[in-house]
Design a protein that fits this description.
Mean pLDDT: 92
Number of domains: 1
CATH topology: Fumarate Reductase Cytochrome B subunit
CATH class: Mainly Alpha
Domain Cytochrome b561 bacterial/Ni-hydrogenase: 14-215
CATH superfamily: Transmembrane di-heme cytochromes, Chain C
Distance between the termini: 14 Å
Shape: elongated
Number of strands: 3
Largest sheet: 3 strands, antiparallel
Protein name: [NiFe]-hydrogenase I apocytochrome b subunit
Family: Belongs to the HupC/HyaC/HydC family.
Bound molecules: protoporphyrin IX containing FE
GO molecular function: electron transfer activity; heme binding; iron ion binding
Structural class: mainly alpha
Keywords: Cell membrane, Electron transport, Heme, Iron, Membrane, Metal-binding, Transmembrane, Transmembrane helix, Transport
């Protein structure tokens, strides 16, 4: 493909499943942050009001998105390890190579080129790993709180594991606090992630934001 006399190369980087999970996860996280902060501070209904329906609906939305996030977190971990394409797994090689870290830091200072084994740079890989771990922690602490509210069905099935985790974390109040603290991690991540995604496309002419929409990385031939 050519645009304004520059030849562009097209490369498939993200499968349909990875793209669908990315956007579904983004949507659930945004709704979870908003509904979670509302649960923590239900400012729309006065303390003496008998209107408890709004809180119930917001908790329902939180749980629906929460279970969506649980399902995506498990499916995404499966895809990372067992997916057909190894483009994500290959990036781990850069994480354990000090030269790759140096190359990445230098490119942030506009020196040299990023030479990656897979689709992510080492810092990007470590950040995504940390956010996946945070998602897993949110799912665990969320499910523990769920089991403390709903004692039958899934809540009942999770009860013995949930009470063990509650005790290990120092009580239910601590579970709630950690669930709340980690929420801020997602807020901070979201801002940096969007900034970096746009900046990366401009800086490297590679893997711009459209790659996670179309699945294709379009970049000039010489890059
Ligand atoms: C990125 C993911 C998530 C975020 C940002 C988030 C955020 C929050 C926040 C801020 C609260 C209020 C805590 C407080 O009272 O201070 C909350 C409560 C809660 N969350 Fe989450 N959450 C997430 C995922 C989940 C998941 C996966 C589940 C379960 C499947 C879940 C279940 C709950 C439950 C049961 C409560 C307590 C509701 C209540 O007290 O009525 N959350 N969440």
């Amino acid at each position: 493909m050519t645009t304004a006399n520059v030849a562009y190369k097209q490369e498939k980087v993200f499968s349909a499943a990875i793209r669908a999970f990315h956007w579904l996860r983004a949507l659930s996280i945004v709704i979870l942050v908003a509904s979670g902060f509302y649960i923590a501070w239900p400012y729309l209904v006065g303390a003496d009001s008998t209107d408890v329906l709004l809180q119930g609906w917001i908790r329902f939305v939180h749980l629906a998105c929460g279970f969506t996030l649980c399902a995506i977190t498990i499916s995404r971990a499966y895809l990372f390890f067992f997916g057909k394409s190894d483009i994500e797994r290959r990036s781990f090689r850069d994480v354990i190579r000090p030269q790759s870290w140096m190359a990445q830091i230098k490119t942030y200072l506009w020196m040299g080129h990023l030479d990656k084994a897979g689709v992510y740079g080492p810092l990007q890989f470590v950040t995504y790993f940390a956010i996946s771990l945070m998602a897993a922690l949110m799912c665990i602490t969320g499910l523990v709180m769920y089991a403390n509210v709903f004692h039958q069905g899934l809540g009942g099935a999770l009860w013995s594991a949930a009470s063990w985790i509650t005790e290990s974390m120092g009580g239910l109040a601590m579970v709630r606090l950690w669930h709340h603290y980690i929420t801020w991690g997602f807020v901070i991540f979201l801002v940096i992630h969007i900034y970096m995604a746009v900046w990366y496309g401009i800086r490297f002419k590679h893997n711009a934001v459209d790659a996670i929409v179309s699945g294709y990385d379009y970049h000039p031939e010489k890059h």
